[in-house]
Amino acid sequence: MKFLSVLIPLALLSSQTVHAANWYFLRWNTPSSSAQFQKFSMQMVTPTIQKAGVYYLWPGLQDTGNTGVYQEVLDGRSGTWWIGPGWCCSNPSLPWGDGFNPGNGKAVDITMTRDASGPNWTSILTSGSNSVTNKFPLSYKNFNQVMNTTQTAWCTNAPENYNNAMRYTISGAKATVSGGTTTCQIDQVVMEGPR
User: Fold this and answer.
1) Within a domain: residue 195?
2) Which of 27, 48, 94, 110 would disulfide-bridge 104, Cβ 3.0–4.6 Å?
3) Are 175 and 187 in contact (CB under 8 A)?
4) Rounded to whole angstroms, what are the CA distances from 163 to 14, 19, 57, 170?
């Protein structure tokens, strides 16, 4: 399906001579291209990083035109985690936002909100005493999550598991409808590792 709601991938890239990429992600596909994301929020617990490597983990929103991903990227290249928001990888070319080092096993609260009367999406990342807020001029992009629809199966059905490569568990998926808008809440998604 071409419409993405939530994209939660894990990319593992080898830093050895052979440069291979392994992609593992779950994707929730929405039922309508006219629906608009308004807000995406979650709490992500950072895994323990064993050693420096090209590890990336990010929750994100992809637009219906497949021109890029608005994402909060957890980066492990230095041997410790760093997290920050950004738009990758084309149309438009935007700088990455500010971030911080959350540490192993730390909860990071993530909120991405479409500004009601402006051109921006606002990202807020918080973990303990660390907090950053960044704005990205992406309100013209068509992301699909909190939707003007009364359909709920996109939320409560199992997500697409790219190449059926990820072992995962999901608990507490539920959808509520109010005033023509569907809100999806998932209590927990645990990405356990490759199959």
Assistant:
1) no
2) 48
3) no
4) 20, 20, 18, 18
HSE, side-chain direction, 13 A CA sphere, residue 125:
26
- What does the pLDDT read at residue 144? 57
Q: pLDDT confidence of 156, banded at 50, 70, 90?
A: confident
**Domain of 73, in residue numbers:** 4-145
- Please report whether residue 175 resides in a domain: no
Q: Are 156 and 185 in contact (CB under 8 A)?
A: no
178 vs 122, more confident: 122
- 95-122 in b/e form (b: 16+ CB < 10 A) is eebebbebeeeeebebbbebeeeeeebb
Task: List pLDDT tens digits, range 19-28.
Answer: 445 777 777 7
Q: Is residue 28 part of a domain?
A: yes
Q: For residue 30, give the DSSP letter.
A: P
Instruction: Concatenate the DSSP letters of all residues of 47-100 into one string.
Output: PPP-S--EEEE--EEE-TT-SEEEEEEEE-TTSS-EEEEEEEESSS-------B
Higher-pLDDT residue of 5, 33: 33
Is residue 109 situated within a structural domain? yes
Yes or no: say if 143 and 30 are a contact pair by the CB < 8 Å rule. no
At position 70, the amino acid (one-letter code) is Y
> How many domains is the chain partitioned into structurally?
1
